[in-house]
Amino acid sequence: MAQAAADKKMVKFIVTRQDSADAKPYTEEFEIPYRPNMNVISAFMEIQRNPVNSNGQKTTPVCWESNCLEEVCGACSMVINGKPRQACTALVDKLEQPIRIAPMSTFPVVRDLVIDRGRMFAALKKVKAWIPIDGTYDLGPGPRMAESKRQWAYELSKCMTCGVCLEACPNVNEKTDFIGPAAISQVRLFNSHPTGEMNKDERLEALMDDGGIEGCGNSQNCVRSCPKGIPLTTSIAAMNKDTTKHLFKQWLGM
Asked: Which Pfam families does the entry link to (predicted)?
């Protein structure tokens, strides 16, 4: 019996923790019994049920965010073995051990792996990433999009504001006010919409403002890291073209 317990496979986690927004970060190690098809979220749930670290000391459960558990909500973004990604699709069987978990450094830490993505939502507000129709009145069906446009617009609409592209981008940090690739791509999405294009010029001018599209250094880390495969660099190139055309129109008084 003792031998069977000794032979039981364990999974080791090294988690970067932070007790509060103002506290210093530290690492804590955990070992939990292995189960087939385990992902990082289920491992954290196991730690939550029995919050004891590798030294056998009772500790506080690790704090994290999650919701859908199927890579749709974007809430469980964190850095796993040095790569920003979603914890719900990070399968333990495919991760090198010990598994190192840390919060995304681009955003302020609230506690442990919980971050404040306010910077990202502020960028979306800045570029007015919405259709300004409140739905109070029945306006009937809107104009139809061409199928060729709808197909690539649908790809852009998959953005779940997970923040992974901002974490991967070297131009998004505490020293810059660059709005990041996600907001730029959303400008392309809403400017292509038959109703959204009413505010096209406003969005382009927001991209031309400080912290806008000129902050992109074309590292292309964003498109490589996006969990939804959104063509972010294509959107950045398209918006670069549109802002340039808009600037010339302003100069010519058109």
From this structure: Fer2_3, Fer4_8
Cβ 25 vs Cβ 17: under 8 Å = yes
Cα-Cα-Cα-Cα dihedral sign, residues 162, 168, 173, 179: negative
Determine contact, residues 59/51, Cβ cutoff 8 Å. Answer: yes
Homologous superfamily of 118-251: Alpha-helical ferredoxin (1.10.1060.10)
Q: What is the fold, at CATH topology level, of the domain defined by 2-115?
A: Ubiquitin-like (UB roll) (3.10.20)
Q: What string of pLDDT tens digits covers the 254 residues of the chain?
A: 444 444 689 999 999 999 999 999 999 999 999 999 999 999 999 999 999 999 999 999 999 999 999 999 999 999 999 999 999 999 999 999 999 999 999 999 999 999 999 999 999 999 999 988 776 777 788 788 889 899 999 999 999 999 999 999 999 999 999 999 999 999 999 999 988 999 999 999 999 999 999 999 999 999 999 999 999 999 999 999 999 999 998 888 76
